[in-house]
């Protein structure tokens, strides 16, 4: 079987697809990962073969338009174009960039299957043009269910131009790593999959202290927000708020974020900073997690059975964090509620109240009981009828 995996150029979307792509390769299938030029280095560092489709889109600039307003901020209302969620403008910009090249790649490479992440709409369009099954892989809560009424119309002009006709944005089947109690319901066929965190290349080992004398809290802010607006990178401020409260604070950052810390020069000495260590390794030995509400961070914390304090800064973060809070495994603070005393109070509650840890542990147990990526790769092989031609 030949499988084209595709997402637009945003590392966290790639990370969600890596375990299944690797599982397909391990099963003996041919895999190629197609994305815009800006993701090529990350694909290769994930040890996957890369193909370039389309051109880069100013994703960071578009995401900046969707940032939730800061408390007391003045300025014009966010721009809204057309019907439906504002994010459709960004999704269709990527689809317009990628779809034609993706159609050519699928045809020339004689692919049997297209696997696309939930917001890469070029995937189902190109699959429809070429007549191969389209498999949707979720990286978090299926927030595009809320756009079901407007997605087909948004996709129709591009689909018609490429000769696809009507396209189902939800694909032939959806591979879903999100616990069912946290997921939004939909009408599509679902293949649950065990969430195996991939947080980027593993360049640095995690070395926890030999002894645990205090509760350990990890603070991390993902990759997105610092790229979109460095002033919105507030992980250091949250870590500083927790310093001196009787907990061990671990601040997990990327190399680029370490430069931000160096420029600010206000981090307490008792906050331990780790750089480019996969968050999955850090969380394995933590009692609580403080994060920005990205889907990858939430699922990684849940896989480790760790309760969370989440501070959403984008509309999709609000969707992911709201569903996490509904399970009892997370507390959500708005940007308006980030007084240091409030942060300390909420983290203390996560550590002292057994219910968030119990809820997170139950979700982790359920996630471990799902089919492995290897088993899902086997199920996907049964979706396509054309293996005989190879």
UniProtKB/TrEMBL annotation:
Domain of life: Bacteria
Domain Erythromycin biosynthesis protein CIII-like C-terminal span(s) in chain numbering: 240-381
Cytoplasm recorded as keyword: no
Domain Erythromycin biosynthesis protein CIII-like N-terminal per the UniProt entry, residue ranges: 23-222
SUPFAM superfamilies given in the database record: UDP-Glycosyltransferase/glycogen phosphorylase (SSF53756)
Pfam families: EryCIII-like_C (PF06722), EryCIII-like_N (PF21036)
InterPro entries linked to this entry: EryCIII-like_C, EryCIII-like_N, Glycosyltransferase_28, UDP_glucos_trans
Keywords, alphabetical: Glycosyltransferase, Transferase
Bilayer-spanning residue ranges: none
Keyword Glycosyltransferase: yes
PANTHER family: STEROL 3-BETA-GLUCOSYLTRANSFERASE (PTHR48050), STEROL 3-BETA-GLUCOSYLTRANSFERASE UGT80A2 (PTHR48050:SF13)
Similarity comment text for this entry: Belongs to the glycosyltransferase 28 family.
Name listed for the protein in its UniProt record: DUF1205 domain-containing protein
Organism field: Nonomuraea composti
């Amino acid at each position: 079987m030949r499988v084209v995996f595709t997402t637009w150029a945003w590392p966290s979307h790639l990370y969600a697809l890596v375990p299944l792509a690797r599982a397909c390769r391990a099963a003996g299938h041919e895999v190629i990962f197609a994305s815009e030029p800006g993701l090529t280095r990350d694909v290769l560092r994930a040890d996957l073969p890369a193909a370039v489709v389309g051109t880069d889109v100013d994703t960071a600039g578009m995401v900046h338009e969707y940032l939730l307003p800061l408390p007391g901020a003045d300025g014009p209302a966010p721009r809204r174009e057309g019907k439906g969620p504002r994010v459709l403008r960004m999704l269709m910009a990527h689809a317009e960039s990628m779809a034609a090249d993706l159609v050519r790649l699928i045809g020339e490479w004689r692919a049997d299957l297209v696997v696309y992440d939930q917001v890469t709409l070029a995937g189902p369009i190109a699959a429809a043009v070429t007549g191969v099954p389209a498999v949707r892989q979720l990286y978090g809560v299926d927030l595009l269910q809320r756009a079901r009424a407007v997605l087909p119309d948004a996709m129709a002009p591009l689909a018609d131009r490429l000769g696809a006709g009507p396209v189902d944005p939800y694909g032939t089947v959806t591979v879903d790593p999100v616990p069912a109690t946290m997921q939004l319901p939909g009408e599509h066929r679902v293949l649950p999959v065990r969430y195996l965190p991939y947080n980027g290349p593993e360049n640095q080992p995690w070395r926890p202290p030999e002894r645990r004398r205090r509760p350990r809290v990890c603070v991390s802010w993902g990759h997105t927000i610092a790229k979109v607006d460095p002033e919105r990178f507030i992980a250091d401020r949250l870590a500083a708020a927790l310093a001196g409260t009787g907990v061990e604070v671990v601040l997990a950052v990327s190399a680029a974020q370490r430069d931000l810390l160096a420029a600010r020069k206000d981090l307490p000495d008792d906050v331990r900073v780790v750089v480019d260590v996969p968050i999955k390794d850090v969380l394995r030995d933590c009692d609580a997690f403080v994060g920005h509400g990205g889907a990858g961070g939430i699922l990684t914390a849940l896989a480790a059975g760790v309760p969370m304090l989440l501070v959403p800064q984008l509309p999709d973060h609000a969707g992911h964090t709201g569903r996490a809070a509904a399970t009892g495994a997370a507390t959500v603070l708005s940007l308006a509620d980030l007084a240091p005393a409030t942060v300390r109070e909420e983290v203390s509650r996560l550590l002292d109240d057994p219910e968030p840890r119990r809820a997170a542990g139950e979700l982790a147990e359920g996630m471990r009981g799902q089919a492995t990526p290897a088993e899902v790769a086997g199920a996907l092989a049964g979706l396509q009828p054309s293996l005989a031609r190879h």
